[in-house]
Specification:
Layout: E1 4-9, H1 16-26, E2 29-34, E3 45-48, H2 68-78, E4 83-86, H3 88-96, E5 102-104, E6 112-120, E7 136-143, E8 147-149, H4 152-160, E9 164-168, E10 180-184, E11 190-193, H5 213-226
Parallel strand pairs: 1-2, 1-3, 3-4, 4-11
Antiparallel strand pairs: 5-8, 6-7, 6-9, 9-10, 10-11
Length: 227
């Protein structure tokens, strides 16, 4: 028996199929979820993938936050269901307040697309347990609204509680405060990050490395061990 990982498709989503493939490569059963459908089809975890949902109108993730599927995801995430938000998915998670802070336009005002080096800061979440704290990985980064911001009190709380999950290395690509690339909620079941681990899961494509596969093997092991 394996775990079922759902991947949501919004209008304007780009990376849903990549996330589904990553889940399959990790050994999970990938399940497509449609934004207008409240039914999560009995999945054990959810991925909110990258893209430009609803064309990023108003601001990135602002409209997706009100999609019918998000009503169920918010409820289930608060009850402990693992949720991973990648790029636009991270933006959606901040709009729902499942994660704190907000995402602004990159400080240089340009779209950026490159391989990005990261340091794993928290290897104890549902999505990062297959990494080690301090481990350095490289995954693709592609965004224009990738600057993570929050007030000083929130930033201090994230640092003090170990909720910074990933930090940029070798240069900050978008002006994110304290070089933060990804964060987690207090329970460790909800994680959001701007870089794209689903594009680094097999040697043939992406970075040519498999540094991102650990997100999907981490959650699979957690779910299988809990079943």
């Amino acid at each position: 028996m394996t775990a079922r990982i759902g991947v949501v498709t919004f209008p304007g989503t780009l990376d849903d199929r990549d996330a589904l493939r990553a889940a399959r490569l990790a050994g999970a059963e990938p399940v497509s979820l449609w934004h207008r459908d409240k039914d999560l089809k009995q999945v054990d975890a959810v991925v909110l993938p990258g893209g430009f949902s609803y064309g990023d109108y108003l601001r990135a993730g602002a409209i997706s936050r009100f999609s019918p599927v998000m009503e169920t995801i918010i409820e289930q995430a608060r009850a402990g269901m693992p949720v991973l938000g990648i790029c636009n998915g991270f933006q959606v998670l901040t709009e729902t307040h499942l994660l704190p802070g907000a995402m602004l336009r990159n400080n240089h005002l340009h779209f950026i697309c490159r391989d990005q080096k990261l340091r794993v800061e928290n290897a104890e979440t549902a999505w990062t347990a297959d990494y080690e704290a301090g481990q350095e990985i490289s995954v693709p980064l592609k965004n224009i609204d990738g600057q993570f911001v929050a007030d000083e009190r929130t930033l201090d709380e994230l640092e003090a509680e170990g909720r910074v999950a990933f930090r940029y290395l070798d240069g900050n690509p978008n002006g994110s405060l304290r070089d933060i690339a990804g964060i987690t909620n207090a329970a460790g079941n909800v994680v959001g990050l701007m870089p794209h681990p689903e594009h680094a899961v097999e040697p043939l494509v992406g970075t040519g490395r498999t540094d991102g596969l650990g997100f999907f093997t981490s959650i699979l092991k957690k779910l299988v061990s809990a079943s």
